[in-house]
Amino acid sequence: MATRSVAIDTLLTRLAPVLGERLRTDAEALAKVGGDESGLPAGTAAAAAWPVSRDEVVALAREAFLLGVPLVPRGAGTGKAGACIPGAGEVVVDFSRMNRIRELRPDDLFAVVEPGVVNQTLDQAASEHGFMYPPDPGSFESCTLGGNVATNAGGMRAVKYGVTRRYVWGVELVLASGEILRLGRRSIKGVGGLDLTSLVVGSEGTLGFITEATLHIIPAPPAVETAWLTFADVLAASRAADRIFARGHVPRMMEVMDAPALAAIRPLAEVAFPERAGACLLIETDGPEGRALDDLLAIAELATDAGALESAIARKEKDREAMRRARRLVSSSLKERFARKIADDVAVPRSRMGELFARAAELALGRGIPWCAYGHLGDGNLHLNLLCTTEEERRRAEPVRRELLALTVALGGSISGEHGIGLAKRDVLTLELPRPLLALQEQVKAVLDPKGLMNPGKVFPPTKAA
Ligand SMILES: Cc1cc2nc3c(=O)[nH]c(=O)nc-3n(C[C@H](O)[C@H](O)[C@H](O)COP(=O)(O)OP(=O)(O)OC[C@H]3O[C@@H](n4cnc5c(N)ncnc54)[C@H](O)[C@@H]3O)c2cc1C
């Protein structure tokens, strides 16, 4: 039988009347909340709780605070940075059962949701009123809005609509002490003091529990059009993108897949991308009927002038969805082939994507490391993968990874465009943030979490790293 600390035993005893069977310590329950999609080893928490209300979260936090027990918020566990992986002696707070849309107010352009609402659920509910919730991470069918806010999630539509931060008007935050903070507003405008809502967005569970979010929804465009175009290589695709943006077009999606990415999805995709394609762009436009198609045709013409080889436009929604689905297959298909791949999600100013492609290829291939690049070309957010199958290959690739991350910072970018830092990148965060700035961030965290109980060990690097 696993031994437990006195603090955990006391916590379990005190919370049993509040949470009942929604507080568990059995191996099956702990396995469910031990890992995420980062590829990092799962952890084993001391216990896991499934609250169904803000008051239950407050009760849990208060007792844990008194006993000094660390807590790890969890949404759906689709995160790619290990940010919800618990350590020994920690208690996971899983929000999947706090999943109600409390208010949907198209007239006021917002919805109020509990944190465990799945991203797609809100978008679908909004669509019944002719509205949409724009942030659409590839995991939209399962990830939660609480997780999206905590990671400032992006997605394929971010090129036109921006990332989660743009849609968060307010949050209710339960601090480690159990204190409730209501941050933000329900109005389109508002300048009431410091913007603490923004501080919570992207904080990866290190400041408190998001128990409610007020999210902006917008009218859905009547028409959406989708096409794929192929190129000789990613540099040609990137040059075409430069030309498209330079002419004032902002498609709602511009995704890139290089030759290894296309090779990985071909056996599974419903779309037959030409074998000889060295790169492919997936482009989507939206707007009034007719206008979306005109835009797409104008973009395709510019791309052709810039070197596009072949193209196809989807005529029906099912074909559009097949194209999007093909793109979403890349990550898992690569993982099947390269079990120990190193996957990074970097961001640079969009106009520097060409330079990133060229220099990253030089770096990786110069050291004999096969690589693959795909992702959100339109907003400068690329998924760079070093394709390793064995531990030895991965060990050899690690220094190259570090140089790639340093390169993105040198290009004016970030080591994480959307997945976050978590455990996966905390050791390299100082490549992007100087120590004094990190120290300031730690001081800010300490104001809200003085005992350091919220998601310990995540984001902030150990003192000796990097
Ligand atoms: C196939 C696939 C495609 C993906 N595509 C994208 C993409 O396009 N764009 C993108 O940005 N990400 C993408 N991701 C990553 C992931 O889906 C996002 O990071 C998502 O926002 C995580 O949500 P989650 O509910 O799974 O959160 P989790 O993984 O459970 O947790 C993530 C972080 O949020 C914190 N957290 C969760 N809930 C709360 C809460 N209520 N209060 C405080 N903190 C909380 C956790 O502590 C942790 O730090 C993808 C993942 C997969 C598997």
Topology:
Elements: H1 6-19, E1 23-24, H2 27-32, E2 47-49, H3 54-67, E3 71-74, E4 91-94, E5 101-105, E6 110-113, H4 119-127, E7 131-132, H5 145-151, H6 158-161, E8 168-174, E9 180-184, H7 196-200, E10 209-216, E11 218-219, E12 223-231, H8 234-246, E13 253-258, H9 259-265, E14 279-287, H10 291-305, E15 311-313, H11 317-328, H12 330-337, E16 342-347, H13 353-366, E17 371-376, E18 381-386, H14 391-410, H15 435-448
Parallel strand pairs: 2-4, 3-4
Antiparallel strand pairs: 1-2, 5-6, 6-10, 7-11, 8-9, 8-10, 12-14, 12-15, 13-14, 13-17, 16-18, 17-18
Helix pairs in contact: 1-3, 8-10, 8-13, 9-12, 13-14
The chain binds flavin-adenine dinucleotide.
Please tell me about this protein's structure.
With 466 residues, the chain is of the alpha+beta class. Helices cover 35% and strands 20% of the residues. It contains 15 helices and 18 strands. It has helices at residues 6-19, 27-32, 54-67, 119-127, 145-151, 158-161, 196-200, 234-246, 259-265, 291-305, 317-328, 330-337, 353-366, 391-410, 435-448; strands spanning 23-24, 47-49, 71-74, 91-94, 101-105, 110-113, 131-132, 168-174, 180-184, 209-216, 218-219, 223-231, 253-258, 279-287, 311-313, 342-347, 371-376, 381-386. The strands form four sheets. The chain has a seven-stranded antiparallel beta sheet, with helices on both faces. It has a five-stranded antiparallel beta sheet with strand order 5-6-10-8-9. Strand 5 (101-105) and strand 6 form a beta hairpin. Flavin-adenine dinucleotide is lined by residues 36-37, 72-80, 83-84, 95, 115, 137-139, 143-144, 146-148, 150-151, 153-155, 204-205, 209-210, 331, 418-419, 455.
